[in-house]
Amino acid sequence: MNIQLHYTVSADDFTRAGEASGAVKAKLKQLGFRPDVIRKVAIAMYEGEINMVIHAGGGVADVDIEADRVVVVLTDQGPGIPDIEKAMQEGYSTASETVRNLGFGAGMGLPNIKKYTDDLIIDTEIGKGTRITMTVLV
Amino acid sequence: MTVNELKTALSLETLVEGDGTRDVTTGYCGDLLSWVMSRADAGCAWITVMGNINAVAVCALAEISCLILADNAVLDEAARARAESEELPILRSDRNIYELAVALSRLLPS
Description:
Chain A has helices at 19-30, 35-55, 84-87, 97-101, 109-116, and strands at 2-9, 59-66, 69-76, 119-125, 129-137. By secondary structure, chain A is an alpha+beta fold. Chain A has one domain (2-137): 2-Layer Sandwich (Heat Shock Protein 90), CATH 3.30.565. In chain A, strands 1-2-3-5-4 form a five-stranded antiparallel beta sheet, covered by helices on one side. Chain B is α/β, with parallel strands linked by helices. Chain B has a single domain (3-107), classed as HprK N-terminal domain-like (Udp-n-acetylmuramoylalanyl-d-glutamate--2,6- Diaminopimelate Ligase, Chain: A, domain 1, 3-Layer(aba) Sandwich). A five-stranded mixed beta sheet of chain B has the order 1-5-4-3-2, with helices on both faces. The radius of gyration of chain B is 12 Å and the shape is globular. The two termini of chain B are 13 Å apart.
């Protein structure tokens, strides 16, 4: 099995964030993946989507589904992450007050992605953008 | 117990009917979405004041059985529409989060 999916995540549109991860969740369910695997992928991808909406003006999501793994690559042309070590700490957040009022900005985005994936690679360059590659093993 | 049984036992107002046959095995309280997503167990009833579309998305992604709005918190229209399409039951009470959690814990096996 090798299925590839591609989604565009719109900028500053919190009402649509979650559509891509929701669609991937439905697809994995349809393909018969285990519920715990589906939950991990869905949560990690949603956190990534929200991060792109909050910080990067949106981006794209590429999903590669294979029998033994699901790989999600999120690519944006945002400002980049200045201090990855800090960004990986639970509770560290640079989100705005508006974003916090929506219930986001708890400083849990990247920590959650790490928690729910088996492998996480963050490529980031200041002023150029960020690419996050997350793998969940089946 | 099912969402429908819980609704009756706690005298909750129904905002979105959804799939009331879902099982509720535990509860979770909180308003920070990422926090909830990372810590709430699948199959829980989530008690919160967050009635926006993102809260509904969190329920769907984290397999939360139902959303209970405490303190008569507002459910916005986009959230209602999304919950209907996801068949997510949304219930409401004038009681606060603490009171609802206490009442819920008396209903669920420890």
